[in-house]
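User: ok so my PI wants both of these folded by tonight, can you help

Assistant: No problem, let's get them done. Here's the first:
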Amino acid sequence: MLDNHGRWLTDSSGNKISPSEEGTVESIRDNVILASPTHKDALAVPDTEVSYTITAGKKHLLVQNTGSKIVYWGGTGVTDAKGYKLTPMGSYLFTNVASGFKVYFICSAAESSTVRGIEF
């Protein structure tokens, strides 16, 4: 089973989740929630890019736009034209990320919002 970045999802032992398990809520939930979650402070997102770096030892990051404006996410140099849209109260799960994984957020001109994260 592949994540949104084309990488294989793995179970807690590092084994690839097979196609027979693909699509089951339990296999995805068990893969992500086995680690202790860490709630992160809110990140203010203005109309200039800000970054979020996952804590060492964590492999999964769930982010939610808790503000009232659209937030865009992507790599360094993200813009509202190039980024992926995260609508208010929308969330996105980054799975099996590398140590030092960094994601960037930005809002459109003269707008701001807030993103919250939970790391696993």
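One down. Here's the second:
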Amino acid sequence: MGKKETILRRMEGRNMIKFGSLRVNSVRGSKTESMEHFLMKAKLCKLIMDKGYEFITEAIFEKSVNMKSEYRRADIFITDNFTVIEVYNKEKQESIEKKRKYYKNKNLNFYAISTEADDNEIYNLARCL
């Protein structure tokens, strides 16, 4: 992808995000998330940044006209390739599948990774991006 196409793609990705949560290439956390969750996000963001991609953490997606559901917050959203990464710890599989379906309906790629994933799993995910 050329420089112009990359810029346009990133702008399109940014336009999906609620303005207040739009902090680019910054790892954000909250008081309620575990240290393991935050550190996994940080590791993934470093790998994403090393690939030259732009990311937004704790990205809140705008509601579309047709969607009646609440806002969704993605752990990591990569604007270059419209990919959402969900980091989970004790979350039930049905919750992960619900998120997968939500993001698929928005034509976004979706990956989920456990806070207990080893380095091999982390690097395999990074290669897919």
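The CA atoms of residues 61 and 71 lie 6 Å apart. Residues 3-17+33-128 form a domain with the Endonuclease; Chain A fold (CATH 3.40.960.10). Good luck tonight!
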